Amino acid sequence: MAMRLTPKRVRFINFYFNEAQLNATEAARLAGFGSPETRGPQLKRVLREFIEKKEVELREAALISPRECQERLAYIARNAPVNTQLKALEFIAKIHGLFSEKVHVEMNRGEIEKSLLETLEQIKTNELSKMSPADKTRLASIPLN
Questions:
Q1: 7-62: which CATH number, 3.30.230, 2.60.120, 1.10.10, 1.10.357?
Q2: What are phi and psi of 34, to 5 degrees?
Q3: What count of Cα atoms within 13 Å lies in the side-chain half-sphere of residue 127?
C-alpha cells in the first residue's frame, strides 16, 4: 500500500530541510504535530523515501548547468579585471577544445618503419658516441641472432 503524503507531512518535509535544519523534532513541532519529540523521528523514518527524493532534488537544484557555467565565464571574461578575464578565457578555450593536446598523424606502414629505423639509428649513434673504444669492440663482437 502506497503511503499518502498529506499536506501536514509535506510541511514536515519542507520544515525539515529549511527552518528546522535537518532536525526532525523541530520540523514536527513547526509542522504542527503533537508530541514532536516522538513524532519527529518517527516521521523521519516513515517518510524516508520522500526525504531522500527531496534531498536529490535540492542537490540537483544547487548545481549549475553547463550553459549557466559558460554564461558566467563569458560575463567574467568581458567584465572582470584583466587577470581574471584571462583565466575565464582559458576555461572557455578548454571547454571548446582550443587547447587540445591531441595530434592526428597519418602514416602508412612503410613510413612508420622508416621513421622507426631512423630513430633507432639516431639512438645507436648517440649511445655509441658515449662508449669507450673497448666497449664498442666488445659490442661489435656480440652476435645479434
A1: 1.10.10
A2: -75, 155
A3: 9
Q: Shortest CA distance to 43 belongs to which of 83, 18, 84, 10?
A: 10
**C-alpha cell belonging to residue 9:** 507531512
pLDDT tens for each residue of 62-118: 888 888 888 988 999 899 888 888 898 888 888 887 776 666 777 788 888 888 888
What is the greatest pairwise CA distance in the chain?
Answer: 98
Q: What is the amino acid identity at position 27?
A: A
* Alpha-helical segments (H) within 32-81: 36-46, 48-62, 66-79
Residue-wise pLDDT tens digits, 23-49: 999 999 999 999 999 999 999 999 999
Contact criterion met (CB below 8 Å) for 13 and 54: yes
Please report the DSSP string for 93-111 in residue order.
HHHTTTT---------HHH
**Spatial separation of the C-alpha atoms in residues 27 and 20, rounded to whole Å:** 5
**Count of CA atoms in the C-beta half-sphere (13 A) of 5:** 13
Single-letter code of the amino acid located at 7: P
Domain with CATH 1.10.10 in the chain: 7-62
